[in-house]
Amino acid sequence: MDSFEGLIEFVAVAENQGFSSAAKRLGCSVSHVSRQVSRLEERLGSVLLARTTRQINLTQAGLTYYQQCKDLINGLEQANEQVSSQQFQVSGTLRVSGAGPFAEQFVAPVLMDFAEQHPKLTIEMDFNTRMVNFVDDGFDFTIRYGELSDSNLIARKLAIRPMMAVASQTYLQQHGVPNRPSQLKNHYCIISNNDHWLFNNAGVPESIKVSGRWRSNNSHVVVMAAEQGLGIAYMPKNSFKQSLKSGRLVPLLEPYWGKGASSWIVYQNKRFLPIRTRLAIDYLLQHFADWVE
């Protein structure tokens, strides 16, 4: 059993990138954490942490060991939670990464409801379009839109996001109204994620390469550019809800709108997940089971 001593302290240091912050998280002294980690390294005969005056980093051996230890600790937490399942309270910190209006307008409020049901739970939600490294960044899961390529991760579908093309009345008065997707080649288009727009032409997918004067990976900025008359935008319907209601934008090419891509919950493929992560994922999946944009 001595071989298990120091694992919790080591994982805390790895995740908090320092002895002081790890000690604060564990509710013990810095000297205790340092001593336990040093003893662990002595038993293993390997340096797990590269210590400098400014920061603490994992060595290559430390990174490999951390990934294994984290699963062990998660498994222990899960076993403890199952034993006391009749009286447990969800606690700790749930870290979620999301991007785009769907995560902001729909996922975040659901997680707020989840937090209200579990008063001892803290939720940190980061809105960033970059790809997440679950090990380095410490996220429990992320909300992503579109095609997913990393087969080492688990992706659970939340919702399908049907598309809509829109433009301002000012733009249409100056440049005319396109009647078919192919005519977009003669228009300014506002590009978000890619410059190949997929339409549905009588049941047959039709991909149109578009170009324009404005490109942004932020959907709010794309909507603003469309309202300013800079071109035609093509994104999930809900992105334009307020602009359509106010009349600042009008729909185009409705018979050709594509079914769109899906929004997903993405998380690490590992044997054990903390119960707060499993319950939050299940809560979101249940909420969006019959969701319609």
Can you offer a commentary on this structure?
The mean pLDDT is 86. The chain is elongated. Helix 1 crosses helix 3, helix 1 crosses helix 4 and helix 2 crosses helix 3. A hairpin with a 4-residue loop joins strand 1 and strand 2. Helices cover 39% and strands 24% of the residues. The protein folds into 3 domains: 82 residues, Orthogonal Bundle (Arc Repressor Mutant, subunit A); 95 residues, Periplasmic binding protein-like II (D-Maltodextrin-Binding Protein, domain 2); 94 residues, D-Maltodextrin-Binding Protein, domain 2 (3-Layer(aba) Sandwich). The strands form 4 sheets. Strands 4-3-5-14-6 form a 5-stranded mixed sheet, with helices on one face. Strands 11-8-12-7-13 form a 5-stranded mixed sheet. Strands 1-2 form a two-stranded antiparallel ribbon. It is of the alpha/beta class. It has 10 helices and 14 strands.
